[in-house]
Write a structure and sequence with these properties.
Number of helices: 4
Strand order of the largest sheet: 1-2-3-4
Structural class: alpha+beta
Number of domains: 2
Largest sheet: 4 strands, antiparallel
Shape: globular
Number of strands: 7
Radius of gyration: 19 Å
Order of helices and strands: HEEEEHEEHEH
Strand content: 15-25%
Helix content: 10-25%
Amino acid sequence: MKALAQCWFTRQHLPDGRPHREEDGSHTSYCRHCEREIVTWDRSRWFLAGGFNVTHLAETVGGRFLFVVDVLEEAMIARYPVQHLPDEVAVDALKADIRAKHGLDQPGSGLELHDSGATPAARRKATRPRRAPNLRSGPSQVSA
């Protein structure tokens, strides 16, 4: 019996080798852990291919929204429409409010803010894995 692959636990598929570009602009490859076919549209988030992808559908249909996503549970926490906002400055202000309201900048938060209208480069930057905070405080001071 085959053991469970790493991507089953982390829910993050990693391409094995160079992705193949498809006619619709997506890229396909095989997951290096579970060896199943995977697909991406922004070259940062990979999904199992051959099924119905709700995330991609939400990002491409129905206008622009800001989403608060729990990456550990793969659940959408909140969705905020931005069509009524006059410009990008107002969108950035709303993003700051959402970050504060949901505590996205708190250490250990499993929440991420996704913008359906962001360019693929901006999506990669937003979904880049967070580094753990540096808990080292330098040499300890010991008094004699």
